[in-house]
Specification:
This protein is α/β, with parallel strands linked by helices. It has a domain of about 300 residues: Purple Acid Phosphatase, chain A, domain 2, CATH 3.60.21.10. About 45% of the residues lie in helices and about 10% in strands. It contains 17 helices and 15 strands. The strands form four sheets. A six-stranded mixed β-sheet has the order 3-7-8-12-14-13. Strands 6-5-4-15 form a four-stranded mixed β-sheet, covered by helices on one side. A three-stranded mixed β-sheet has the order 9-11-10. Helix 10 links the parallel strand 4 and strand 5. It starts with 9 loop residues before the first helix and ends with a strand.
Length: about 500
């Protein structure tokens, strides 16, 4: 641009420079618009200082870079000072202000690719102390107080490697926030490295648990059994925050499987539950459902969810890590010596070398199905990505109760159908009073009579001499359309 015709307007260009320096909100501008402003500023500066050479984009870029370098230098000074501060003496408002300042400084530095993980840990530590006030909150169904800095702030693994209650609260608030954003932005707040560490920590614990976990519950405690969630993250949060409360020394949780698929937030559901498992391994128990298998997750949405959230580069890595976790999930619990919980239901007797069946028993297996025992159940290999057809493991994950007596193959899908007589036999043989299983939602019971239609989230399927059998399905408003953002009702669960 030729500046000679404009030399007479020096005062006007001084005014332009003053407006840019003192009055413009440069923070809110995009990079493209900010470069345009620098171009204007450089042109105006050339007029004011009597420069006659043409201003190019390179000149504006040089001004841009020098300005950014200056800002980054100041941001580093802020961070260095913050790292030396003693935050214990600050009140809540001052601590909150420090978080705001430190967040902005970290974002500036991170955009220069020199963001140190220890600084992220310091920021997380501060955020935990002031709660979730730094993140947006849902007010009347709308987002409030969103900033560009908040969009790019990632979670980090605890510096000491130990999950705390505050870290889980931060995890939940982060997932609440991200659930209203484009799913492709999920990896910006939940890095793959953190996902891997969380899954590994939980898998290590569950790998050591037995196929059927026995809960010895204190008399002053309550046990909450939760059915299928199927990716409905907001309903899981409502269960904790509005209904049952959070796990504690006096409050046990047993989750009956089917955490992923169907809904849009299967990974969020899984990660929150795994975090609770790591924090309170003897108060939170996660069982395997039929959707915690490779075939189901490929067919019913979880794989697609991971591809959207992590892209081609990392989705396979996260998927494999989740499958590794699914293999470790136990299959059943016995609570207080009287309540049996599992995902699908009862199972067939197996006849293998390990059980040393007699010739007559082998012939019986060929002729008719018979009910399996907990002794056989304890020996089954659960550490598989997918379950074999017509096998004890597929029965546990897929079987359904029937009003018709007897035990027979379910010809419509995997597993078995079993009648009230089988429920009575299983309860009596194992000295139990109650079976709570899941697996079937309202859509599976369409057309059933009022006692078994699942519209209340549960149904009593069998009532025998020795006890009862209930089906429990926790996800409300199921099936949800994936574009819905988590409509919530009182989630369904058993408390006893």
């Amino acid at each position: 641009m030729d500046l000679l015709p404009l030399i007479g307007d020096v005062d006007e260009f001084k005014e332009i420079m003053g407006i840019i320096n003192k009055e413009m909100d440069l923070v809110s501008l995009s990079d493209e618009n900010l470069r345009r402003v620098f171009m204007i500023f450089e042109i105006a500066g050339g007029v004011v200082n009597g420069r006659t050479k043409q201003v190019t984009e390179a000149d504006a870029e040089q001004l841009w870079c020098s300005s950014v370098d200056g800002v980054v230098a100041v941001a580093k000074q802020v961070i260095d000072y913050a790292c030396e501060m003693n935050f214990q003496d600050l009140d809540g408002l001052l601590k909150q202000a420090v978080v705001e300042i430190l967040r902005s400084a970290c974002n500036i530095v991170s955009k220069q690719r020199v963001f140190d993980s220890s600084l992220q840990g310091l920021l997380e530590e501060l955020q935990v102390e002031v709660g979730s006030t730094m993140r947006e909150r849902l007010v009347g169904g709308k987002l409030e107080n969103l900033t560009k800095e908040q969009d790019t702030l990632p979670l980090s693994w605890p510096r000491n490697g130990r999950i705390s209650l505050e870290w889980i609260q931060l995890l939940i608030s982060t997932f609440k926030w991200s659930s209203w954003k484009d799913p492709k932005e999920f990896q910006n707040v939940m890095p793959v490295t953190v996902v891997k560490k969380l899954i590994s920590a939980a898998s290590k614990i569950m790998r050591e648990e037995r196929n059927c976990v026995k809960l010895r519950v204190r008399e002053d405690s309550e046990v909450i059994v939760v059915g299928d969630i199927l990716g409905q993250f907001h309903d899981l949060v409502a269960l904790f925050e509005e209904n049952a409360g959070f796990p504690s020394d006096h409050r046990y949780f047993v989750f009956n499987g089917n955490y992923v698929d169907k809904g849009s937030w299967g990974l969020e559901v899984l990660l929150v539950l795994l975090a609770w498992k790591v924090l309170m391994p003897h108060r939170v128990y996660l069982l395997r459902g039929n959707h915690e298998t490779k075939n189901c997750t490929l067919a019913y949405g979880f794989w697609a969810e991971l591809c959207t959230k992590f892209g081609k580069k990392d989705c396979k890595l996260v998927f494999d890590k989740c499958l590794e976790c699914f293999r470790t999930l136990p299959l059943a619990t016995i609570i207080a010596q009287g309540v049996y919980t599992t995902h699908g239901g009862l199972f067939r007797r197996t006849c293998s070398a390990s059980t040393q069946c007699s010739t007559g028993e082998k012939r019986q297996k060929l002729d008719a199905l018979s009910l399996g025992s907990l002794k056989e159940f304890a020996k089954v290999n659960r550490f598989l990505e997918d379950v074999p057809e017509n096998d004890l493991l597929s029965d546990v994950l897929w079987s359904d109760p029937s009003s018709k007596a007897g035990l027979r193959e379910n010809t419509k899908k995997f597993g078995l159908l079993w009648g009230p007589d089988c429920t009575e036999e299983f309860l009596k043989e194992n000295h139990l009073k109650l079976i709570i299983r899941s697996h079937e939602g309202p859509d599976a019971r369409t057309g059933a009579d009022d006692a078994r239609n699942m519209l209340n989230g549960y149904s009593k399927d069998h009532d025998t001499v020795s006890g009862e059998l209930y089906t429990l399905f926790t996800a409300p408003n199921y099936p949800q359309v994936q574009i819905l953002l988590g409509c919530t009702m009182h989630s369904r669960r058993f408390i006893f």
